[in-house]
Amino acid sequence: MRPLQRGDYARGFLEVLRKSGKVGYVSQARWDERCECLHVRGRTRDEYVLVVIEVESDRVVGVGRWVADRGL
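-> C-alpha coordinates emitted (72 positions)
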Protein backbone atom coordinates (compact mmCIF):
# COMPACT_ATOMS: atom_id res chain seq x y z
CA MET A 1 0.00 0.00 0.00
CA ARG A 2 1.23 3.48 -0.85
CA PRO A 3 0.00 6.98 -1.71
CA LEU A 4 -1.50 7.65 -5.13
CA GLN A 5 0.98 8.50 -7.91
CA ARG A 6 0.45 9.94 -11.38
CA GLY A 7 1.68 6.69 -12.92
CA ASP A 8 -1.30 4.87 -11.39
CA TYR A 9 -3.37 6.05 -14.36
CA ALA A 10 -1.57 3.43 -16.47
CA ARG A 11 -1.60 0.87 -13.64
CA GLY A 12 -5.40 0.58 -13.71
CA PHE A 13 -6.57 2.96 -10.98
CA LEU A 14 -9.70 3.97 -12.89
CA GLU A 15 -10.54 0.37 -13.79
CA VAL A 16 -10.61 -0.47 -10.08
CA LEU A 17 -13.02 2.42 -9.44
CA ARG A 18 -15.22 1.32 -12.34
CA LYS A 19 -15.85 -2.00 -10.60
CA SER A 20 -17.65 -0.24 -7.76
CA GLY A 21 -19.23 2.76 -9.47
CA LYS A 22 -19.74 4.80 -12.58
CA VAL A 23 -16.53 6.37 -13.88
CA GLY A 24 -16.38 8.00 -17.29
CA TYR A 25 -13.42 8.78 -19.51
CA VAL A 26 -10.61 10.71 -17.83
CA SER A 27 -7.82 12.12 -20.01
CA GLN A 28 -4.19 11.94 -18.96
CA ALA A 29 -4.14 15.75 -18.60
CA ARG A 30 -7.22 15.73 -16.34
CA TRP A 31 -5.72 12.87 -14.33
CA ASP A 32 -2.49 14.82 -13.80
CA GLU A 33 -4.47 17.88 -12.70
CA ARG A 34 -6.53 15.83 -10.23
CA CYS A 35 -3.44 14.09 -8.83
CA GLU A 36 -1.82 17.45 -8.14
CA CYS A 37 -4.98 18.61 -6.35
CA LEU A 38 -5.02 15.46 -4.21
CA HIS A 39 -1.33 15.83 -3.34
CA VAL A 40 -1.96 19.41 -2.15
CA ARG A 41 -4.86 18.19 -0.02
CA GLY A 42 -2.57 15.55 1.47
CA ARG A 43 -0.01 18.17 2.45
CA THR A 44 -2.52 20.64 3.87
CA ARG A 45 -5.50 18.68 5.21
CA ASP A 46 -4.35 15.22 6.31
CA GLU A 47 -6.33 13.51 3.55
CA TYR A 48 -4.73 10.80 1.42
CA VAL A 49 -5.72 8.54 -1.44
CA LEU A 50 -4.02 5.17 -1.09
CA VAL A 51 -3.57 2.37 -3.59
CA VAL A 52 -2.83 -1.30 -3.17
CA ILE A 53 -0.44 -2.61 -5.81
CA GLU A 54 -0.10 -6.22 -6.89
CA VAL A 55 3.69 -6.36 -7.09
CA GLU A 56 4.15 -9.05 -9.74
CA SER A 57 1.89 -7.35 -12.30
CA ASP A 58 2.55 -3.76 -11.10
CA ARG A 59 -1.22 -3.12 -11.24
CA VAL A 60 -3.56 -1.27 -8.90
CA VAL A 61 -5.86 -3.80 -7.23
CA GLY A 62 -7.34 -1.65 -4.46
CA VAL A 63 -8.08 1.97 -3.68
CA GLY A 64 -8.80 3.71 -0.40
CA ARG A 65 -8.95 7.10 1.25
CA TRP A 66 -7.64 8.07 4.66
CA VAL A 67 -8.81 11.23 6.42
CA ALA A 68 -7.55 12.37 9.81
CA ASP A 69 -10.26 13.44 12.23
CA ARG A 70 -8.88 16.18 14.42
CA GLY A 71 -12.03 16.47 16.52
CA LEU A 72 -12.77 20.07 15.68
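The radius of gyration is 13 Å.
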